[in-house]
Amino acid sequence: MKVINDTTPSERKTAAADAYELIRERILEGAYQPHEYIRESAVAAELKISRTPVREALRELISEGWLEAIPHAGARVVEWTHRDACEVFEIRLVLEPLAVAAACQHIDGVQLQHLKQLALQMEKLVRDMPQDVDVRNEVSKLNHEFHRILIESSGNQRLSQLLSNIVPNSVIRRNMGQYKREHLQRSMQHHAEILQALEARNAAWAECMMRTHLLAARELHTQFSDGV
User: Fold this and answer.
1) May I ask the CATH architecture of the domain 82-225?
2) Has domain 9-77 been given CATH number 3.20.20.140?
3) What are the tens digits of pLDDT across the range 32-59?
4) How far apart, in whole angstroms, are the C-alpha atoms of residue 188 and residue 166?
């Protein structure tokens, strides 16, 4: 096996990004289970890179809360409990309606068009093959991007950074993976009405719809986790 000699800064950066994406996707897909240790050597061998960029990727994933560092043992997958997820929803219920209300004043045409395209892509996937695992993963990715752009369009960088740091993508995507067809369709309807409120520059409407959207998601999470 030929191992990439990632000795230049650009090569190391690319290799670290590849390792980061691989590990994060494995966590989201459940291939890496909570409390499972991530072995540098195994990831490096799979990607045909040295262990240095894998180590950099692990440090980044630890800083973002995907992994935790265990002294003298390595990095292992963080377990997100029902309580953790509920706390995340409580934070989102305060901050995301605030962000979407601000977006009504600051969103530009490019951002609005991007959101519309993401919404249309999700609607098509949900309509055509909502039960397919790969389709659900794609919807989850698009949904994350939709919320990211929506928050970014608030024009409040501190709010955007705060939400990105305290609202793990893993919680959102794992929750959506449990949705039935009707749940996905309702979520798409919420997105459509949020976009209507943004176009109308109606902050109260947008804020109300975002809160409804999040309350529905929290209720589903509670049902799926069964209080565990």
Assistant:
1) Up-down Bundle (1.20)
2) no
3) 888 999 999 999 999 999 999 999 999 9
4) 24
